[in-house]
């Protein structure tokens, strides 16, 4: 479960970062 949550969080953070930039 932890790995799955980390993967989803990474995708969300990556998308947000790309949008901010």
Helix content: over 70%
- Please state roughly what percent of the residues sit in beta strands, choosing from under 5%, 5-15%, 15-25%, 25-35%, 35-45% or over 45%: under 5%
Give me the count of strands. Answer: 0
User: What is the string of helix and strand elements?
Assistant: H
Poorly predicted segments: none
Largest sheet geometry: none
Label the overall shape.
rod-shaped
The overall pLDDT average reads 66
SS element count, helices? 1
What Rg is obtained from the alpha carbons, in whole angstroms? 9 Å
Distance between the termini: 30 Å
The assigned structural class equals mainly alpha
Features of the shown structure:
21 residues, mainly alpha, 1 helix
Q: How would you explain this protein's 3D organization?
A:
Residues 1-21 are annotated as: Disordered. The radius of gyration is 9 Å and the shape is rod-shaped. The chain is 90% helix and 0% strand. The chain has one helix at residues 2-20. It is mainly α. It has one helix and no strands.
